[in-house]
């Protein structure tokens, strides 16, 4: 019986094959994360999150009360924590309103001035009423509101 001749790969083609394989792996190592980063952030949907602020017992009737929490945000591969501050207002202990503390003019933080019963924005003297409506100054619209849920004495807001 005659033996088949063995196919021998030469040194040059073998080194060429090894070089091409290693180059492909290096290219993939750089390209795949970059493509995932670019496409991932564009395809990723920003999810809504309910954020618990705490007990309703901390909210006095008729006085906007500052409440703070934070929300986790993902942008591409980066995860960051963002502070969220809202003023909670209730006039009857059953219905609650959550207002952003960010001025609708240029984004400064407003503060509640109890003596005047108004929110005041120090940047351009914007003034908002207790319910967040614009009283005076440059703000173009009332303070933004968050959907509120009260369950088992705990207040939650829906952050987007
Ligand atoms: S940023 Fe608030 S009045 Fe301008």
Give a verbal description of the structure.
With 160 residues, the chain is of the alpha+beta class. The chain has 2 domains: 8-43; 49-159, Rieske [2Fe-2S] iron-sulphur domain (Rieske Iron-sulfur Protein, 3-layer Sandwich), CATH 2.102.10. 21% of the residues lie in helices and 38% in strands. It is built from 1 helix and 11 strands. The protein has one helix at residues 11-43; strands at 49-55, 65-75, 78-90, 96-100, 111-113, 118-121, 126-128, 134-136, 145-146, 148-151, 154-159. Strands 2-3-4-9 form a 4-stranded antiparallel beta sheet, with no helix packed on it. A 4-stranded antiparallel beta sheet has the order 5-6-7-8, with no helix packed on it. Strand 5 (111-113) and strand 6 form a beta hairpin. The radius of gyration is 29 Å and the shape is elongated. FE2/S2 (inorganic) cluster binds at residues 103, 105-106, 108, 121, 123-124, 126, 137-139. FE2/S2 (inorganic) cluster (FES) binds at residues 103, 105-106, 108, 121, 123-124, 126, 137-139.
Short synopsis of the structure:
This protein is of the alpha+beta class.
Largest sheet: number of strands, sense, barrel closure: 4 strands, antiparallel
Which class best fits the helix and strand makeup? alpha+beta
As a percent range, the share of helical residues equals: 10-25%
Q: Considering the protein shown, what is the CATH homologous superfamily of the largest domain?
A: Rieske [2Fe-2S] iron-sulphur domain
Ligands: FE2/S2 (inorganic) cluster
What does the oligomeric state look like here?
A: single chain
**CATH architecture label name of the largest domain:** 3-layer Sandwich
Shape: elongated
Q: How many domains comprise the coordinates?
A: 2
CATH domain class name of the largest domain: Mainly Beta
Report the β-strand fraction as a percent range. Answer: 35-45%
Poorly predicted parts: none
| End-to-end C-alpha gap | 78 Å
């Amino acid at each position: 019986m005659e033996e088949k001749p063995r196919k021998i790969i030469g040194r040059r083609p073998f080194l060429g094959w090894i070089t091409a394989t290693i180059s492909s792996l290096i290219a993939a190592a750089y390209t795949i994360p970059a493509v995932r980063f670019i496409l991932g952030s564009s395809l990723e949907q920003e999810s809504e999150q309910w954020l618990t602020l705490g007990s309703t017992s901390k909210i006095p009737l008729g006085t906007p009360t500052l409440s703070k929490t934070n929300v986790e945000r993902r942008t591409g591969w980066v995860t960051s924590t963002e502070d969220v501050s809202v003023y909670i207002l209730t006039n009857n202990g059953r219905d609650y309103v959550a207002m952003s503390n960010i001025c609708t003019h240029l984004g400064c933080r407003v503060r509640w001035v109890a003596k005047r019963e108004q929110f005041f924005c120090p940047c351009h003297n914007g003034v908002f009423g207790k319910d967040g409506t614009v009283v005076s100054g440059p703000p173009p619209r009332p303070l933004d509101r968050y959907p509120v849920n009260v369950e088992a004495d705990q207040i939650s807001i829906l952050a987007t």
